């Protein structure tokens, strides 16, 4: 006890000392710097610098960001009813939601908004997306460009209901299908209601789709797991160097249906709460997990109140599955020479046993599915295409050059894939591999040592070889690229509801889930 008290006193003195130094320096710069300074910008940069060496989930939230977080948790807000992207002084419509204000006003995915109520987006220094928010019934005038033409329209803001379960339906005569898109306050209730309705329609088996679900409320992850897993079962535990954050989370109620055959779909964008649910389902041998290894976001955050309505969201612990696997993939506390977070190598994965049947499962970050699907994967090349917005922009061009009357008419061909490759090459798409980065660094070192003349020809040959290999890599990842292209293109014509119907008919992961659930012998074999 005396040792802990001494440690606390030492930490307190060090904190007080550093705060005093910082305050004095901050004051001296503001009072004496040669040019005029902006105190708020200086402080924002200081905060950003302080957090930069920690994990990316420990963040400072402004008052507006705090309110946005509350909106996300509640699942309702007032606005134009569209996903938007703000980058480089641009505001792009990513997806208008059917029958909401943006859709009613004629806005489409790919439209770039230039002005909102006379305010030019290019000149607006804050997050321009905030200009779209406001009270229900209020109007805003929007000027936008589409395919090189400038247009104007008027929108009337409205209440927007963000459903945790945006779609459910019958995949076959006895298999129900439920999409759980996010873990907001309504997640478990909407999932339970959907399953109840499907069972009334004849569902005797369930597919729970968590692909692309980024997570949300931990309590709702436990509640969703509890729909299938009995009372008093461990769903996840959290571990931290701070004792009070070491906790276990158990199911609190009788399972809604502890026996119904279950398939859970995940991919590389299923994170956090999605990984808690899929991990508990897998660890209790409660269902078959299908798709690709999940994202690996196993860090727990808690918001802490600051002055003037702001908050800091702090990583306080790590998630673990019932078998003891750590969900977190990247190690932000032991970085490589370039300062990048390190991922556990496959040969260093640890084996664990599932709770009921004793199957072997592995850690390494994220949840590794029982059945792996190429179409669900997110390889580095695919991630680079998404980061470059190449798939989104290609779908925009595609939409204005093709016509479809029904979702059944959309069948992308090998020629479509070849056209996409030609399109990204013409666009100048490129991405740097880890190998390229390492060679470039070695070549720079050689130049500093005046050895570059001796190895220049070999280096250029190697660079060209890597470029050719990258072209081959794009073709090797055809399944996952075509899956993302198809999804984006279907949405352009038939909205998200059309995409869900299309996936229900043709989605390879859903078809695999149907095949497994329709084969009780194979289902039991996987889980035993």
UniProtKB/TrEMBL annotation:
It comes from Nonlabens ponticola. GO terms for biological process: proteolysis; signal transduction. GO terms for cellular component: outer membrane-bounded periplasmic space. The keyword Cell cycle does not apply. Belongs to the peptidase S41A family. Pfam families: CtpB_N-like, PDZ_2, Peptidase_S41. GO terms for molecular function: endopeptidase activity; serine-type peptidase activity. Keywords: Hydrolase, Protease, Serine protease. It comes from the Bacteria. The keyword Translocase does not apply. Residues 65-146 form the PDZ domain. Coiled coil: none annotated. This is S41 family peptidase.
